[in-house]
Write a structure and sequence with these properties.
With 890 residues, the protein is an alpha/beta fold. The protein is 46% helix and 18% strand. The protein contains 34 helices and 30 strands. The longest helix has 30 residues, at 674-703.
Length: 890
């Protein structure tokens, strides 16, 4: 009998993807574990409650925060609880007063397991807190008394290490446990060990619901990511230029410093290369930097060292990157190997430190951490926020509901509010508010919502008091001078103020709400948000995706809602050796966008990667940045155009859709190389042998009888030549184009993963290679999301630059001098047996290659040679990975 009959019943209509999961739930639960991945705003909580209801057993819900815990209880009460039932009889948020469904935080469970007492608070002290006392709590008695048999994990990957242990211990004590795991952001970018722990706990992913499907279903609104760039302020640019100038000056001086040259030339490894060779091979970049420096200064050294590099004496030019590696060893990591000259070393160290080129005993000639942090927190971002708000308010007017998320409150800046004499130059909730307020954008209403600071327009006091009265708490407002704004204080439950401000925001009492990611970045539900500015330093997929989820939910108050998600970046063109790059936090943005699926600005396709935004390449000047921002703002205000873009992109996807994780590269990377030309030579030789044997046989036929021994030998020779022609002809055909070459490699990688048992759904997947212009890309069709991610990772490692793999693929025996080298992917290189399987599977593509272990002296020498000679190392910048949405039938 189901104890929830007559108590819980969903008061709505199931969405297509929700119904699909429910229809398959019984099958998924065959192992008593159900693991669902769905984008923020997809209705995971509602789906989880229905799955709990169907189990019909007492349940414990575990959440990462108090805010999310209260949302579960509220959703059950207002979306499921049938009339005539008292919520207090069925729901609880306290383990000491459990009910059939009890919701608590992971932190609270950890406190129970450890019998702790104290105050539980959110990250960085933000958010709500509660005081608990579990000093006399017995977990075994709780399990026996409550009869809990179902546990629902909400976003389990957020657990700290000690919380993991407590959760695993707790679950191990529950008999006949049914585990339901729900998440929007599985830890795909975690280490293999972390992923295994996560999957061992939650079980394999049973269903993944992607954002494009939710947009097509109308569960999420059409949305787009935008990047607003800023040039550093004069002070920031000067600091960056000063560092770059001083670093370049030091580099120029040292490259020809006679004392420094003499000391490097006296390194033990240069004087006794045979004895020091193995140590050099343990640090190939450092080893190479010494040789490159000496070669630059025309200092002779042992031919043995040249042989170790495999470069035949051809060295690249000395760059700041090589000098940085050399100085790191000279001053810190390998200082004992150089002649002792303490005065010179101290003088050089002091010079580098004064120039900002040493931080925490790390030499930094190319990128300075302090300058990186300075640009990431650029004051120019305050102006970026103003320009975005101005454009959004000018376009949306009273309909604007814009959220700004930042990392810190900067409470100490409250004294600057209303005081124009005090500057506001930092990124934080209070300074962002004050900077916007000072711009006096007509009609714009601002608000601040954080754990310790709440600011609202003073004229909202009456409405706020009414909301507080209905929430059962009291509030007061203290004016902030004559600014028209007041600071709010609330007496009562902390989570009430969040709900009150959220309601005020949705009604239009606030147009722009500024808050911290700790309080509002995850789990906070305010579907009215139609624009979001991420003024945070977060680069990880998990947290960034959670924050994006605040702006992409549909809202009954605006059925035509679209969501704009703004990312801020400070960039400064800077020369790294012989190449130019963008200093600042552009790299963080690139990392964010690798996992964000969205509609492309350049074509009707849904994919990931920052390239889909069409930022352009002219970002090396202030005018180029300004033009890029103007183009971005024009796109952002065209919300009808955004909706049309989604409609066009989704039209080409029929029936069920799938998300493929592709590895994309320039065709030159897979251009026919050694193997192809080797096959061509063998084919020519075989063809010549065939022609020769035919001529010889015809001569024998004319001069001798057919039965002669010479004729028999000629026939066998001709047969062998025919076999060679066919064999190498097939190989030429298979390697003649980059696409065919990539397809054979993809088939080999997939075959090895299947044979080593690492593919979760081996019967339902195949490797696919496609071409688009000069680009070729491969991906796994079918299989689980984890299968696709693993395949893409292995393909990227195989085609990518060789770093420090446990095994490399090399031609057998003496032919290694002429062959190419390939890295054995990490997933296939942990065991000798797996590496051998991979080599066997790649034989059709590569030929007589074998897996060589790189942790032996011979293997390390081969690895160094592979690093310097492998053709893929010259092309690694052309290799990218992205996700792309396709129809299941494509």
């Amino acid at each position: 009998m189901n104890r929830y009959d007559g108590v819980l019943q969903f008061c709505g209509t199931w969405r297509t993807y929700q119904q699909r999961v429910l229809d398959r739930a019984e099958t998924y639960l065959a192992d008593r574990k159900l693991h669902i991945v769905a984008a923020p705003g997809s209705g995971k909580t509602t789906l989880g409650i229905e799955l709990i209801r169907r189990q019909g057993e007492p349940c414990l819900i575990l959440t990462p925060s108090i805010t999310i815990r209260e949302q579960w209880i509220s959703r059950m009460e207002h979306g499921f609880l049938m009339e005539g039932n008292d919520p207090a009889d069925w729901f609880s948020n306290d383990l000491k007063e459990s009910r059939p469904i009890t919701a608590v935080t992971y932190q609270a469970l950890h406190s129970c397991m450890k019998r702790q007492k104290g105050t539980l608070s959110g990250e960085d002290g933000e958010g709500e807190s509660e005081t608990v006392d579990y000093s006399d709590f017995d977990v075994r008695e709780f399990i026996a008394g409550s009869g809990v048999r179902t546990v629902c994990l909400d976003e389990a990957h957020h657990l700290r290490s000690e919380w993991w242990k407590a959760l695993e211990e707790f679950l191990g004590q529950i008999p006949e446990l049914t585990l339901i795991s729900l998440t929007a952001t599985p830890p795909y970018d975690s280490t293999p060990a972390q992923w295994k722990r996560y999957i061992d706990l939650c079980g394999p992913i049973d269903e993944e619901i992607f954002t494009p499907e939710l947009v097509r279903e109308g569960s999420l609104c059409p949305h787009q990511d935008y990047v607003y760039l800023n040039w550093p302020t004069k002070e920031e640019e000067k600091a960056a230029r000063d560092f770059s100038g001083q670093a370049q000056e030091i580099f120029r001086e040292l490259r020809s410093d006679k004392v420094f040259v003499r000391m490097v030339a006296s390194h033990r490894g240069i004087l006794s290369p045979m004895e020091y060779g193995e140590k050099f091979l343990d640090h190939p970049k450092y080893f190479s930097s010494i040789l490159i420096f000496l070669h630059e200064n025309q200092v002779p050294f042992s031919p043995y060292l040249k042989e170790l590099t495999g470069t035949k004496g051809r060295f690249p030019g000395l760059s700041p990157a090589w000098m940085e590696a050399l100085l790191q060893g000279f001053l810190y990591d390998d200082a004992d190997a150089y002649p002792s000259d303490a005065a010179y070393r101290e003088q050089l160290t002091a010079r580098l430190k004064a120039a900002g080129c040493i931080r925490r005993n790390k030499v930094q000639l190319e990128k300075n951490e302090e300058i990186g942090r300075l640009l990431t927190a650029s004051r120019g971002k305050l102006n970026s926020i103003v320009e975005i708000v101005r454009a959004e308010y000018g376009s949306m007017g009273e309909r604007l509901r814009l959220l700004v998320l930042c990392d810190f409150i900067k409470k100490e800046m409250l004294s600057a509010v209303g005081d124009p004499e005090k500057p506001v130059h930092e990124i934080g909730a209070v300074p962002i508010f004050e900077n916007l307020r000072r711009k006096e954008i007509g009609g714009l209403r601002l608000g601040v919502l954080s754990g310790s600071v709440v600011i609202l327009p003073s004229d909202t006091e009456q409405e706020l008091r009414a909301l507080a009265l209905s929430a059962g708490c009291e509030c007061s407002m203290t004016p902030l001078g004559d600014t028209g704004y007041s600071r709010v204080s609330v007496r009562g439950s902390g989570h009430r103020i969040v709900a009150m401000i959220t309601e005020l925001f949705s009604r239009g009492g606030i147009h722009v709400l500024i808050g911290t990611k700790s309080l509002l970045g995850e789990g906070w539900d305010s579907p009215c948000i139609n624009s979001l500015i991420l003024a945070t330093y977060v680069g990880s997929f998990m947290l960034s995706n959670q924050m994006r989820g605040r702006a992409i939910r549909v809202w009954e108050g605006d059925l035509e809602k679209t969501g704009n998600i703004w990312h801020l970046a400070c960039i400064l063109p800077q020369k790294y050796g012989e190449e130019w790059g963008l200093a600042g936090d552009y790299e963080t943005l690139e990392r964010r966008f690798r996992a964000f699926l969205g509609v492309s600005c350049t074509e009707d396709v849904i994919e990931s990667g920052i390239g889909r935004l069409g930022l352009g390449e002219n970002l090396d000047s202030k005018s180029g940045v300004r033009q890029c921002n103007e183009k971005t703002l024009r796109r952002a205000v065209d919300r009808k155009g955004l909706r049309r873009s989604w409609e066009r992109s989704l039209k080409v996807i029929h029936e069920e859709m799938s998300v493929e994780e592709t590895v994309e590269m320039d065709e030159e990377l897979a251009a026919p190389g050694y193997l192809f030309f080797n096959a061509v030579v063998c084919e020519i030789v075989s063809a010549l042998c065939l022609i020769f044997s035919l001529g010889f046989r015809m001569s024998l036929r004319a001069a001798l009888q057919w039965e002669s021994a010479a004729a028999l030998i000629a026939g066998l020779f001709m047969l062998a030549a025919c076999v060679g022609v066919v064999k190498y002809g097939v190989r030429i055909f298979g390697l003649c184009t980059p696409q065919k070459r990539m397809r054979q490699a993809a088939d080999g990688i997939l075959g090895a993963l299947i044979r080593t048992g690492q593919v979760e759904e081996p019967l339902h997947c195949r490797a696919v290679v496609e071409q688009s212009g000069t680009l070729a890309f491969s991906y796994l069709k079918g299989g689980s999301t984890r299968d696709k991610t693993l395949f893409a990772k292995c393909a990227a490692e195989f085609w990518g630059p060789i770093d420090n793999p446990r095994y490399v693929l090399a031609l057998r025996g003496g032919r290694r001098r002429t062959g190419e080298f390939y890295a054995v992917p990490e997933a296939l290189g942990r065991k000798k047996e797996d590496a051998a399987v991979f080599a066997g599977c790649m034989k059709r593509f590569l030929g007589p290659y074998e897996a060589v272990y790189t942790r032996t002296p011979e293997g390390r020498r081969l690895l160094l040679k592979a690093r310097t000679r492998s053709f893929v190392n010259k092309n690694y910048r052309r290799l990218t990975d992205k996700k792309r949405v396709k129809s299941e039938f494509e």
